Request: fold
Amino acid sequence: MTAGSIDVAPAARDPLCIICGGGSLPYTVADAALGKGRPVVLLAITGFADVAAVARYPHHWIALGQFGRLRRLAREAQCRDIVFVGTLVRQAIARIRLDLLTFRLLPRIIRTFRGGDDRPLSGIGKIFEEHGFRLVGAHEVAPQILAPEGAFGRCVPSEGQEADIKLGIALLRAIGPFDVGQAVVIAQERVLAVEASEGTDLMLAHVAELRRAGRIHVAAGKGVLVKAAKPHQDRRFDLPSIGPKTVEGVARAGLGGVAVLAGEAIVAEPQDIVAAADRHNVFVIGVRDPGHTL
Reply:
């Protein structure tokens, strides 16, 4: 056990530190903890977290690269459990504001950035644990954010789209060990796009542009977006997620809907997702993993 580490698991009544990125999910997690009688302290990341939303909770602002400040604030608040939640665009090292402790850790942090997204996340997670914190998945605090099984709105996939969903999940399982991405677009059993460093929203925008340019010959409404976690992904970080913006992107790309694995993907603003799906006549569905056979 390293110096400063914890001998026993923190009690659920101890304050929870929530490191906030963008989007609404940090506040859903905070409300879930508060609803169970657990105090929360938000460490909001400047440039990503919503200023007005953060103001509703006990909070401090931090910049990327201020691990020393983060550690001090979390310890002062007597937080041992830490949750990372919210969108965060991967930044170039040169754009990160380093405090003294982060500067000392910089060689190690740089090594974690050599590879896919899983490497920096798992590397940074180990650093937190070595400094006495316990990392908790957002879904452990607020299990209601995980996708349920079944359709969200009135639309459901056709038989052909179900086959595309099955193919998409199999493809994601196959490429997962290479730490590529968490999303693919499939239409009539043809792969149209695979998510890489651009993220889901830009991938969907690219599909829309390909359609406008006449490079996609599949009829509108036939394709599907499929999202699934990588097979060996640390579930405390970066679970695949969807929100109303995802549905809007699916509609603009001329796809028929989006499928995620039930219990393995985070759903942001589910009521707005249903409204957007019904408005655009696309399906949103949580499915069980059909396995690796096609």
Notes: Confidence is low (pLDDT under 50) at residues 1-10. The domain at 146-287 is CATH 3.40.140.80 (Cytidine Deaminase; domain 2).
